[in-house]
Amino acid sequence: VQLQASGGGLVQAGGSLSLSCAASGTIFGFNPMGWYRQAAGKQRELVAMNSGRGTTYADSVKGRFSISRDRAKNTVTLQMNSLKPEDTAVYYCKATVARDYWGKGTQVTVSS
Prior knowledge:
The chain is an all-beta fold. The protein has strands at 2-7, 9-12, 17-24, 33-38, 45-51, 54-57, 65-70, 75-80, 89-97, 99-102, 106-111.
């Protein structure tokens, strides 16, 4: 499985950005697929994940971020609204198919 992420960039606080991740290879709708992020000097953390059991969000992004998945196209999109400077991080797409696969990170910078 290979993951190709796109999106990200620089935005002012309160703005919106969208991240997309396309998976190639064999992946099923019940396989978890979603986003993590890693801010400078911090550990990588879950942002949002979609699997056959539903969707999970980090408490810090609930109500602001929304994850959607197109199982036919093997894509997952993270819509980020009301962005805050503390959302600044490198965002990584992740899929789990027998093992974890990670995409190349994409930078999201939110200026105050």
